[in-house]
Amino acid sequence: xxxxxxxxxxxxxxxxxxxxxxxxxxxxxxxxxxxxxxxxxxxxxxxxxxxxxxxxxxxxxxxxxxxxxxxxxxxxxxxxxxxxxxxxxxxxxxxxxxxxxxxxxxxxxxxxxxxxxxxxxxxxxxxxxxxxxxxxxxxxxxxxxxxxxxxxxxxxxxxxxxxxxxxxxxxxxxxxxxxxxxxxxxxxxxxxxxxxxxxxxxxxxxxxxxxxxxxxxxxxxxxxxxxxxxxxxxxxxxxxxxxxxxxxxxxxxxxxxxxxxxxxxxxxxxxxxxxxxxxxxxxxxxxxxxxxxxxxxxxxxxxxxxxxxxxxxxxxxxxxxxxxxxxxxxxxxxxxxxxxxxxxxxxxxxxxxxxxxxxxxxxxxxxxxxxxxxxxxxxxxxxxxxxxxxxxxxxxxxxxxxxxxxxxxxxxxxxxxxxxxxxxxxxxxxxxxxxxxxxxxxxxxxxxxxxxxxxxxxxxxxxxxxxxxxxxxxxxxxxxxxxxxxxxxxxxxxxxxxxxxxxxxxxxxxxxxxxxxxxxxxxxxxxxxxxxxxxxxxxxxxxxxxxxxxxxxxxxxxxxxxxxxxxxxxxxxxxxxxxxxxxxxxxxxxxxxxxxxxxxxxxxxxxxxxxxxxxxxxxxxxxxxxxxxxxxxxxxxxxxxxxxxxxxxxxxxxxxxxxxxxxxxxxxxxxxxxxxxx
Amino acid sequence: xxxxxxxxxxxxxxxxxxxxxxxxxxxxxxxxxxxxxxxxxxxxxxxxxxxxxxxxxxxxxxxxxxxxxxxxxxxxxxxxxxxxxxxxxxxxxxxxxxxxxxxxxxxxxxxxxxxxxxxxxxxxxxxxxxxxxxxxxxxxxxxxxxxxxxxxxxxxxxxxxxxxxxxxxxxxxxxxxxxxxxxxxxxxxxxxxxxxxxxxxxxxxxxxxxxxxxxxxxxxxxxxxxxxxxxxxxxxxxxxxxxxxxxxxxxxxxxxxxxxxxxxxxxxxxxxxxxxxxxxxxxxxxxxxxxxxxxxxxxxxxxxxxxxxxxxx
Amino acid sequence: xxxxxxxxxxxxxxxxxxxxxxxxxxxxxxxxxxxxxxxxxxxxxxxxxxxxxxxxxxxxxxxxxxxxxxxxxxxxxxxxxxxxxxxxxxxxxxxxxxxxxxxxxxxxxxxxxxxxxxxxxxxxxxxxxxxxxxxxxxxxxxxxxxxxxxxxxxxxxxxxxxxxxxxxxxxxxxxxxxxxxxxxxxxxxxxxxxxxxxxxxxxxxxxxxxxxxxxxxxxxxxxxxxxxxxxxxxxxxxxxxxxxxxxxxxxxxxxxxxxxxxxxxxxxxxxxxxxxxxxxxxxxxxxxxxxxxxxxxxxxxxxxxxxxxxxxxxxxxxxxxxxxxxxxxxxxxxxx
Lengths: 678, 313, 336
Prior knowledge:
heterotrimer, B: mainly alpha, 14 helices, 75% helix, 0% strand, C: mainly alpha, two-stranded antiparallel ribbon, 2 strands, elongated
């Protein structure tokens, strides 16, 4: 009753959204409740486990029911695969909706695609005039989850037409899909399909996408107007996942026969993945249960990292998922995640900046206390790069490459990473992060930290010791800083101090993250902090397009407003190329151009340590698809049951001491009062 | 009585209109339609998609038209949707009110009882060093910022001693209690200082009244005068004072909820403030003032019940 | 704008503000009621201790408020000059430790720190002292905004009654009906972060209570014979208000100002926690407590940052509250 939604079958008939919460008050006699509540005080007060009991004790065959406890850092914005674009939504959706292709769970350098719902990785076919097409074959026998939207409540088979429906939805202006632009640029017929729906509704029956050719139930072909190898990466994103039209039409968020059907756009899913979403309570938890009809993929039997290969061998080829229930606790704060992990109520401890020292020693190993507990340390490297952006149209910093380089050289990234990432996140030496084609591990950023060089460059730029050589006035720069929360504030302060070592004056313009982005888009800034890029897919094009001159805001994300014809030419050529030596050469050229012009101050690629509990060793080490990889996880429930109580011993003496204090105080007060009243 | 009530409610209407106007103006000064679009669609969505979004929601209309629409929406109890979570705010408020009440309700009652007992005890031993010490303690309790209570309470009781869950919440029948104990305890401490001091002053004022002297003259014992007469009369004054706070309890306690992960309205608000989720802030302002006004009307009714002369004025 | 940022302007403003407050108090001291209250206050030990403590805080704040020209150009505060011998470390160090704390590579410290250093290696004691300035600026500016305004509105409403009263009552009931913290946040999000905007926001929400109090007292005073007599003698409204009413409500203003100051300091802490508090680079107790929260999950614990800030904040607020109580007792001995 208190859940935000449950499938309609389990809902009261009469519930309208307004009356739901009120129902709680009439469950039973109020007085009785108060009495029982008081009794419960003593009983429940002493348990600190915040997780709700699992759905079942045992599986149908009698073996124990296994739950995995993980966490999310925010609420997903939407559960609509064609609309959701935030990381949390992706993590929440991926267990429910399988993708056409997946990433290999163990291969992160470089990333590698493997088939998931498709029989094999589609092959490129050249169709002449620069056009290309991809023939795709869906695996037969993939089922949608059972749901009342299907006849008899039984999930039907996934067919090629469901993929077409997803592409139609991306075109539907009502959905406001953020994936429309990049796809419509290449997939033939998407623009035309959207045009038909300008004013009226998108007609799913009549308006088909010309570039999507349905061959039979399991085969379809996608036609592109130009070569676009990145299409395969789009297949590994949740946005191209097949959708059941019945479900979209059934779950419209309106009232039918007196019951509310939750909107599929926001709070409901009908998928075909290894898990089905059972419950979503905003700001508390999302719970999933295994889908018994899942046979799409099995545990891989290659690519095991050598140190774990022997242990992983036992899972090779096993049916997925490896456990029965997935529990995402939504934890908006950084501390509780660590605390709950320490108490064993979450299966992984993400060591934030502050808790880090408790878990990891200075030589980046587990501390003895946690080693004794049997924890395992995993280093996760994210495919992203963070940097500060210069405004290339600014009259001061935009026209003066030496000044930009001087500022870049003044920034001590290593210490920055030491303080805020405990030295785990590597200093970024180039735009591309590790794991992408074109990343060069031996490359050194020529504009990296060098205080001497910074001083020299600043003088050459016309500002010796931070003062204008002509007027003698101190150079003043404004930095846009996102500053919600104490940590961002500390970072802002660090950046301010780092630049001020040059003798220039820094004015920090603090705002919420959204406001900073707004200013970056408007171009009313000199230096913007907190910018960076997280790979949508692991391809160089997804990073270099940030400096392509046709991607100026508002249409694109070239916040620096960097524009150089040679760079554009190289980018255009590189973008549609297959990986190879020729492409590598182009990437190196582009890197050199960026170094020469220095439109950004490279900071770091994010990496973090995750300490996993002894009962939940990680079976993968690939950060690009955290939600989707849940199916590969394993949990040893018996081990957890043994260790949890051991880690949560509650000392008695503080309670006794407190009681003694109160009674002592009371007794003293009474005696004193008697004396004074006599 | 009925007429009086109607008059009070009618008086609240212009105030509510003023509040709506203030929030509307603030809302429009705070963010441009373009920024709103960027907040909802995400930073990676740009260009035409945004213009369309703005147009679809009528954010490009002249402000008076928008204000009229805004009023219409509020009349239909349509508060809009959150930028951060895309949830309908009416739903957010309805689901958030109960957890908030579960913290603030028991907390309020417990803090009230504790403060009244302490105040009465102080009046009992008034002007003694103990009384002075306790008054000093009350002022001390008042002088600590709320978050320090929460931070230290959480650190000591939940993190080090593992007595209570450090974080989280779920409706699990009586199991819910375990999530409430610590927040409620802290709620008591936050309010104890201020309330006890206030109530003590009220009781002291009662004790100087004539009827107390009469009671003493009749030969009643000190304790009896205090627990029966002073307590009863003082309580009426106190209750009329605190009634105004009761409706506000729905909004929960900002810091407690956000630091303990109680999914009530308080934590919704903190999250909204920290992420700049404007619709939530604006709707809460409106809701908060409605509740406040309700509280005032309730206070007036209490006064009127206690003192019939007021009704006539 | 740069005129206001110039160190000399700032010094003149600070000294002017202090001088203004002192002259106000001296003007008040001519009043017989105030003289009696002062005599009573002198006998009140807690009140006097609180008074002295507040004086110390004011002095420390003044050290940071007053600027002198620095040899590199620009200006430095006196506190900066006094503490210029204390070096910056890389990151945390414990009180009186000589090795860096919790960093990846262990390092020797460059100096000694009585209360340790914070995440960016700044001396906690210096930060705590610097935060006095932030508290004083916010408190002072807010008081300067809301006290004159609230008093004026209160007297107008209480003296003229009728539509003036109705209008003023309407405005403050509307403002009062919005939950204070939300109004603060909404205003701050609109005006942007900064000490000035925070003072404006706190002023907007703060005058309501004072106005209500003064309005009631003015109403009571206007019924008194001395006011009706003045009216009968045909004195102007201006004269009645300034000569008769104002001196008789000023003691309430003083008490409210002292208690209000403590509320402002507390409010700053909460606003900083919510992320709309003091701007980057400005030390404040609120931001120190806020960052201290995450530090409490460190192991070994980083306790000095949050403890120092809490203690400093507590000392000021407690003294203000105690002084306010003592003043109330001194002015109105029967009800104390």
